[in-house]
UniProtKB/TrEMBL annotation:
Residues 69-523 form the Peptidase S8/S53 domain. This is Peptidase S8/S53 domain-containing protein. It comes from Bacteroides finegoldii CL09T03C10. Residues 1-19 form the signal peptide. GO terms for molecular function: serine-type endopeptidase activity. It comes from the Bacteria. Keywords: Signal. Belongs to the peptidase S8 family. The keyword Kinase does not apply. One of its GO terms (biological process) is proteolysis. Gene3D superfamilies: Peptidase S8/S53 domain. Pfam families: Peptidase_S8.
Amino acid sequence: MKKLILPIVCGLFCASTSAQLVKQQTSDTQEQSKLDWYNCSFDKDGVYGAEVNKAYDLLKAHKKKAKANPIVAIIGTGMDVEHEDVKHAIWVNKKEKNNGKDDDKNGLVDDINGWNFIGGEDGQVMESLLREGEREFYRLKDQYGGYITDGAKFFKIINGKRQEVPAPANMKEYEYYRNKVLPQSRLASAYGGIQLGYVLNEYFDKFDRDLKQRFPGKELTVEDFQTCYDPKAKRDTLSEVTFMIAAYAFSLYKTDKWEKVYQMMGSGNEKRSQDSYNDAVKKYGFDNRKEIVGDDPNDITDTHYGNNVLLTSDAATGIMKAGVIAAKRDNGLGGNGIADHAKIMTLRVHPGVGETYLKDMALAIRYAVDHGACIINLPEQNSLYPSTQREWVEDALKYAEKKGVLVIVPVWDLSEDLDKEEYFPHRKMCKEGELTNLMVVASSDEKGNPVMNTNYGANSVDLYAPGTNLYSTYMGDTYQKGSGETMSTATVAGVAALLKTYFPKLTGSQIRDILIKSVTSRKGVEVEKGIRVDGNPSQDLFLFDDLCISGGIVNAYQAVKEAMKVSK
C-alpha cells in the first residue's frame, strides 16, 4: 500500500493511471514521438524512449527470428480481451474450455484468459477493497486499540474512567499496531479518538478546577489558561496534548474567554469521537468480500474462489498496459506494442480502490508461474505487509525465481527515498537472501527526467522507464494517452517480453541483469526531483545515478545487444 498521512493520518491507495482521450491516427515518425514515444530514441526522435524501433532494426539486421510467444501476466485490474488491437495477444488456457467445468482440474472453472481473484461464483465482482491498515486494525483492535499511554504508564478507559493497567504482554506487536497500523488506518485513528475523548474530558475538568482555585472569582482568559502549562513539572504527555487542543480552541471559537472554551470542549468529547468512529466505519470499514467472494482471506490454503469475469469497471488500466506491452505493430491502429508476439494473462486482484489482499497476490503469482508466464507485472508496492501474509508473498516470489520468471513492480509517486522507507515487495525482503528476479521500476518522461513525485532510491530502484503520456489501447476499441506508475512497468515488461521472444532461454534473473546493464545512461545528469522533508513535500537537485541502481532509462536496443552476447 502506499503510505498514508492522516490529520493524525490521511491518503489514498488506488491504481493511479490517468488517461486522456485522443483521436485515432496512424503513426509516422513525427507522430510516434508524441504518442507511443516509448518506442523511440533520442538520437532519431528527440525523446528518451526505450529505443524499441532501433531494437527491431538490429534484430532484422542480424536476421533474428521470433522464437517464442512469451506470456506476460498482468496482476492488477481487469481487461478488455476483445479490443481490436490486443485480442491477438490475449493468453488462452488451452487446457480449459468455456463450458462451466473445471477441465484442467486446477479448482478454477473456465479460467480461459486468466482469473478474477476478487469475484464470486454468481458472477459478482468486488468494486472496492479495504486498505491493509483497516484490515490490520480489525485484527488487532481488541488487543491494542484500547490502550492509552502517557509515555511511561499504560491506561484503559474502564467504566468511563481512565485507569492504570499493566503494559501489553506483547510489546512488539503493540508497537507494530501503534507505529505501523495506526498511521495507515483511518479506522484506528478514529477509534483512538474515542479513548482521547475521555482523556480530554478528564483534563479539561482538571484545568478548570486548577484555574478556579488559582484565580477565584475571576473571569478567566486565555492568559490565565496559559498558566496551566508548567515547563518544570514532571512531563505528562496526555496533559500536554489536551493543553494544545485547548489552546487551539481559543482561536477556533474566536474567543479569549476560558468559560466558552470549557463549555464547548469540556464535555461530550467521547460521544463526538464515537460518532466520528461510527461514520468512519460506514465509509471505510467494509468491502463485502465475505458476501461476494466467500473465502477466508487469512487462509492461504483456501484457494478455490473467484471467477473468470475480466471485463470490469477497472479494466481501463489493464488494457492500457496490455497495449504498451503487446498491441499489434504497424497495423495502423493505435500505437505499436513493444512485443506483439507476447501473450497477456490477466489476473485481477485490485479494483482500483483500496489495497490488494496479499493472499490474492501470492496465489496470483503462483497461478502465473504454473500456467507458463515468464514475466509478471505486479501492482504498486505497499508499505504495510503483515508478517504471516508477507511470508506468502515471499514464498511466491521465490517460487517465481526458481522457475526463471521475472517479476516487475512499480514504485508509488510519493517522493520518498526507498533506501530509508521500506516498501514491499523488494529484493531484500527474504531471510534466505536477495531476490535476483525482482525489478523495482520508476517512471520517466520524454525529456529523460524522472517524474517529479516518483519514489526513488540509489540502492532500491532498479531503473526508470517511460511512463507518462503513453498512447495506448483503451476500452471499447478506443485509444488514449495515459500516465502513471504502472505504465512504466508496462514498458519494462514489454522490453523483457521482446528479449524472451528472441532469446527464450534467458531466465528472469538474467533479464534483470541485462536490463540494468543496458540502460540509456543518465549518470552525471543533474535533475530536479520531489522529496519529503519531515513529511512535507519539497524539491531538490540530484544526479540521476543517485536515484536508481542503473543510473538510467530502460533501453531495448542496448538490451538486445547485451542479450546477443549472453546467448552466444
